[in-house]
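Person: I keep going back and forth on a fold encoding question. Show me how you would write down a chain together with its backbone fold. Please set it down just below, with no commentary around it:
Helper:
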Amino acid sequence: MVQTMNSSNENHSNLAIDTIVQHIWKLGALTRAELSRISGFSRSTITLNADKLLSLGILVEEKPKGTEGKPGKRKSLMLCKDRGVFVGVELDAYRCEVGLCTIMGGLLVSSSFAVDFVLGPDMIFQAIIAGIGELQARLTVKNPTILGIGIGLPSPVDFEAGYAVHPAFMPGWHQWPIKEKLAKQFNCPVFVDNEVNTMGLGEAHLSRRYREKNLLFIKIGTGIGAGLIINGDIYRGNSGLSGNIGHIQIDCRHEQCKCGKIGCLEAIAGEWALIEKAESLAKQGKSTILANLYAEKNCITLGDIRDAAMNGDRETIFLLEETALVVGTMIGRLVQFFDPKAVVIGGVQASFGPQYIDSIRSGILKQATPWVKSDFEVNISKFGDKIGVIGSAMLCISSLVRSGLLIHD
């Protein structure tokens, strides 16, 4: 009987501890009174378990900035940012970015390097290890403890197993145990997911207006993918392949896709498709700006397309508007089905400027109106090209906080 009571008390304490950490992680600094009111636990239970977390160095307690020394201001409990760091790793078609973040998702340092997937996973893995070590050395506190690692891959992912599944352009990566290898190398928990999922999660948590909401994150670049966030959590689908919109076929379109099908969204509006179409404009002399660039370099880049459009090149502007409307119409169909609070656009093509995003927005609204509420939003990611690495770190942090492993492991 005594053992049963002790076990019950321990479970109650663990629940209170987990609840305290989760509320502070979601909402930021909170007083003990606020925690009691939000959680439903008594003040004495909050105080007892908050003191445990303070003694473990998981929480710190101080008055809000600007109120130090002023009477009547209660101290707030916050997660300690000095226990260690969380690593975010984002891999896309051409590069890898590595970053170190605080427990609240603040990016401390980051760096990136080019990748060639033809070289296989081992060389990229060694470069990731070296990149993490270099970032640790750059911090004021040298070689801080790594509390966990999150990594986003540009492929379908088995989340539980922690590896890529039949990636399209990553030879040797199918079921290559990157989770297991990183965990062994750094002796910490590791979480692996599709990179668009991690971007969506990062945006949903760090943008307070989207927390606990339904969010559709769209990455437009080499590939086109969607991250579905439901009430603040990633929706992965039955086989982990949710959001693979780049290979949905568009009616009455016949562009050949690299996947073997015709009319895929990616073959119409993805990076390589836009470059092919821009080079065609250059070769035909329809765009003077692109023709001059092609004559000089024998190629066209996305940066050239962006610059030509921003310099008022009519054919380039028309190309971007036409493909953006196709993307927007597809997203609008998803919005009709999913009914999210917002669509957030990320990826390299989000840098094409407001006219490009406005064309996507027009396509969405033309398709989805009147089935969206007046508070529905279409925005560019507020974290720009850093959302991938931050989101990957947030994948790890959120997984640890919600599972209780941050404290009890």
Summary: The chain has 14 helices and 14 strands.
